[in-house]
Amino acid sequence: MQENSLMRTPYDFEPACTRRASRRTSLRAALALASVVATTSLACAGEKFTVSSADFSDGGKIGPRQVFNDAGCNGPNQSPSLTWRNAPVATRSFAITIFDRDAPGRGWWHWAVANIPARVTSLPENASATGALRKLGAIEARNDFNIDGYGGPCPPPGNPHRYVVTVYALNVDTLPLAQGRPAALFDREISGSTLGSAQITVTYGR
């Protein structure tokens, strides 16, 4: 997609760090390019890869809009908005997972997404159900509710569960996965291509 400097979409590319130099077509800018790249790379190296959400904060509670809509829960089941910054400079794509580490057995996969283009640094709320991810060329796994895409929290009554939201920076443009494959398979492929990751942990109980 060709970037229009006068208008940006929610998916506009921002480099792994913050863009520090405007684009110019002059010979002077071209001669300075190597210096700009080197300076930006050094700055990136000292900044932490982070993820945040307008819908919850690290250590906080998942909001009602993100709750599942079955199995005794009746939330809207909207995937959360996410924004990430300062990914490694060699990042070629992103992946996202949400995992319940307190579910019985080996835990519970609520969401796994891969092949998010490197130009993307945020997702709007409900990107899973609205088709926003498909428009980006991303693919979603089948979660442990046995549905493709996002499945919100719906733990059994009792102690709150912890949900780990992770954004992965990957060293490949695409992973050899297909829409609807199990989330655990997505996780294995993601792990083999990860340059770095950013996490927040949120809770939900009923």
From TrEMBL:
This protein's source sits in the domain of life called Bacteria
The UniProt keyword set, sorted, is:
Protein kinase inhibitor
Name listed for the protein in its UniProt record: YbhB/YbcL family Raf kinase inhibitor-like protein
Lineage, highest ranks first: Bacteria, Pseudomonadati, Pseudomonadota, Betaproteobacteria, Burkholderiales
